[in-house]
């Protein structure tokens, strides 16, 4: 099992949605100029996989949102797609779509003030 892709939106230096190319199951390297967001990229992965962010106060959660110029970001998400083709973590398939995804699963964590669910209702994230 390995991380196949990371998708980030509104988190720290990532205002617009950014999706990585598919990672190799072997060795990967993240490179970029100073200030390009490399540290925030790994911070986003820790945000999803670690329990360090479970009990953050509202002010502390707000620091995770993008604070650059332009419109204020009200929510952010980090999504990690795992390739589980080796079936290291047994996952039950519930539909044909699960089978078509090629034995991958994802974890998505959202932080922010407001979000809209699939029905269009606005909800407060606590």
From TrEMBL:
It comes from the Eukaryota. Residues 2-89 form the RecF/RecN/SMC N-terminal domain. Pfam families: SMC_N (PF02463). One of its GO terms (biological process) is chromosome organization. InterPro entries: P-loop_NTPase (IPR027417), RecF/RecN/SMC_N (IPR003395). This is RecF/RecN/SMC N-terminal domain-containing protein. It comes from Linum trigynum.
